[in-house]
Amino acid sequence: MTTAATAVDKRMTLHDAVRRFVHPGSTVSIEGFTHAIPTAAGHEIIRQGITGLTLVRMTADIIVDQMLAADCIDTLVSSFIGNSSAGSLGEMRRRLEREEPAPLKFIEYSHHGLVCRYIAGAKRLPFYPIHSYFGSDLPTVNDELRVVTSPFPLEDGTFEQIYVVPPINPDVTIIHAQRADRAGNVQMWGLTGVQAEAVFAARTAIVTVEEIVDNDVVRSDPNRTIIPSHAIDAVVMVPMGAHPSFAQGYYDRDNDFYRAWAGISADPVSLHEWLQKWVYGTANHGEYVELLGDAARDRLRVGSAPSLPVDYGRRIPR
Amino acid sequence: MSQTDVAMTDAGASVEETMTVTAARALVGKHRVFAGIGLPTLAVALAQETVARDIEVVYESGVCGAHPSELPATIADAVLITGSEAVLSMPALFGYVLQSGRIDVGFLGAAQIDRFGNLNSSVIGDWARPSKRLPGSGGALEVLANAREVFVVMRRHTPSAFVDQLDFCTSAGPERIRAAGGRPFGLGVTKVFTGLGTLSRSAVGEELVLTEVHGGVDPADVIAATGWPLHVADELHTIEAPTPEELDLLRNKIDPKRVYLR
Predict the structure, then answer these.
(1) How far apart are CA A4 and CA B65, in angstroms?
(2) CB contact under 8 A, A255 and B128
(3) What is the pLDDT of residue B2?
C-alpha cells in the first residue's frame, strides 16, 4: 500500500526553497540546539539578500551573528545570545551595546519560555503556562510575559498566579536533520531539541538533510521519524549543511571555528571579509564545503557507533 | 595507588582544583545534578569516584546518563550522546525533568550575584543600552526556580561580581519569587564556590555568609572583595587541601589532557 502523502516529491534546491518560503519581513525560526544547526540555509538567506526578518532561535549563535552582519534581521527573539562557551558574538554586541551599525530589536526569553511558545504555537493555543519569571527582571523588558490566575484551586483553596507566554507561529521554520525521504519524513537521532515543536508551530517548513533516503529506509524504523512528511514543505539535500555545528554520526563539531569566531567577528571589516569569502563568494553550500577542504573535513570525521536494530515484527498470514 | 603516583600528584593544588574538590565534596548525598561543562562537570566526575557514586548528571542539551569517552567540550558534545542512556527533547528536559522538580542540585555561573543568590547573566549596565551585553538566561532562570538547590561557581571574587544591587536580575531566588507573587519551590542558591572561599546558606531568607576560605586567605580580604557587608560564619573553616587521591583522580583520570584544569 502506498498513500498519496508519501508519493509527493518535495525535493528542491536550497536556492529554490529559500526563494519560495523566506520573504522580506518573514518571521523565520531556525532551530537546532548546538546539534544540526541549519547553517547552510542561513547562508542562502544571506546570499539572497533577504531583509527585515524576525528571527526566532533559542540559542542565537554564530549563524545569527552572520545574518545580523548581512542585515537580514530586524528583530531577534531568543533566550541565549552567545557563542557557546567560545567567546563573544561581535556583531550582536555592537548592535545591542552601541547600535552600530544599526539598532536591533531584541525580545528576550529564557529557554523554557521559548520552548513553551513553540508548544503553544504547535497546538494553536492562545498561551502556555510556565513556572518561571516571578522575581526576574525579564518581564520588565518583555511585555509578552504576562500573569494569569489559574481557574483551579490549590490544595489550600487559593488560586495560583502563573506566567504565560504567547504562541509563536513562524512563517517558516528551518531545521537540519540526518536524513529524510523525498516526501519529507524527517529522521533524526542524537539531540532533537525543539525541532518538532518549531516545525509543527510553523505555517511552512524546510528541512535540510545530510542524505535523502528511500521511503523503505524510513519505514524500516518509523519511531526514528521525528516529523512526518505532512508537516514539511521542502526537502533539501545539503551534505555538511550544519557546519560548523555537527551532525551526529556524520561529522563532528568544528570547535576550532567556534573559537575563531570571536576574533573574526570582533572587527566589522574582518567579519565582512569572512562573509565575502565564505558566503557571497560561494554560489551554494557545495562550494562552501569545497572551500573548507579535505583537511578540515578529515579533522571532523567521526568513527562508527551504530545502534542495534529493533524488531518491529510482522503479522504472520494465517 | 603506588608511591610513584602519589609523587606525580604531589604538586600543590591550583585554585581551580581546590574549588572543584570543594564542590565535589558538597555533592555527598545528592542524586541528580544539572551541570554545565567546566568545573561542574569535573566536580560531578570526582564525586562519582568518591562521595556520591550513584550521582547522575542531566545536561541542558537533554542528555541523561552520559558515558563520554573523553571530557565534553560543550553540553551538547557528540561524545555525550554516543553511549548515553537517554536523550530528551527540550520540552521533556525543561518541562518534565526540570520544572517538575526532579533535580537535586543545579550548577550555575553568573556575571553578578547578590547576598540572596539572585543572579545576573544578561547585562552590565542598563538592559536597553548595556555597557556589556552577556548571553542571557539560557536555562539559568529555570534552574534557579526549579532545582531543589543551586551551587554557583564564580572564580573571580570581586566587588563588581558580588554586588549589593544587581544591574539586572536574570534568575531570581525564592525570596524574590515570593515577593513578586510566585510560589518558590527550592532553596535557591545554597553554596557559592569562589577563588577565595565558599559562601553558604541553609534556608530561604538567609543571606549568604562566608563559611570557608582557601588556605592562606584572610577573611578580611573576602569581605573587602564582596560588594555587600558580608558576614562571616561563627565557625569559619579553612578548606581542607585536596588529598593526593583527589588530585590523582582529577589530573590523571578525569582530566588527563588538561581540558579544563590548567
Answers:
(1) 41
(2) no
(3) 38
Pick the residue from chain A with its C-alpha nearest to B85.
A190
Give A13's Cβ-side CA count (13 Å radius).
8
- What are the residue ranges of CATH 3.40.1080.10 in chain A? 14-109+169-299
Tell me what pLDDT residue A76 has.
98
From first CA to last CA, the distance across chain A in angstroms is 20
Q: What pTM does this model have?
A: 0.95
Catalytic residue status for B235? no
Q: Is A58 on the interface with B (CB under 8 A)?
A: yes
Name which of B106, B46, B105, B41 is nearest B73 in CA terms: B41
Work out the pLDDT band at A232, boundaries 50, 70, 90: very high
DSSP string, A142-162: -TT-EEEEEEEE-TTS-EEEE
How many whole angstroms separate alpha carbon B213 and alpha carbon B193?
10
For chain B, 262 residues long, the average pLDDT of each consecutive 10-residue run is 37 90 96 90 93 93 91 90 97 98 96 98 97 96 97 96 98 98 96 97 97 97 98 97 95 89 76
A93 touches chain B (CB under 8 A): yes
Nearest Cα of chain A lies from the Cα of B26 at a distance, in angstroms, of 25
Rounded to an integer, what distance in angstroms lies between the CA atom of residue B83 and that of residue B64? Answer: 11
- Between CA B189 and CA B108 the distance in angstroms is 9
pLDDT attached to residue B37 = 81
Closest Cα in chain A, distance from residue B117 (Å): 12
Catalytic residue (choose from B16, B17, B60, B142): B60
- What local confidence, expressed as pLDDT, does residue A6 receive? 61
Among B58, B75, B90, B257, the residue to mutate for chain A (most A Cβ within 10 A): B90
pLDDT at residue A81 tops 50: yes
**Cell numbers linked to A167:** 504562541
Read off the amino acid at residue A210: E
What are the structural domains, with CATH classification, of chain B?
Answer: 3-43+99-254 (3.40.1080.10)
A12 CA: distance to closest CA in chain B (Å):
28
Neighbours of A11 (CB within 10 A): 17
pLDDT at B12: 86
Fold (topology level) of A14-109+169-299: Glutaconate Coenzyme A-transferase (3.40.1080)
Question: Which of B118, B130, B142 faces A111 most closely, judged by CB atoms?
Answer: B142
User: Residue A239, by phi and psi: left (phi above 0), alpha (psi -120 to 50) or beta?
Assistant: beta
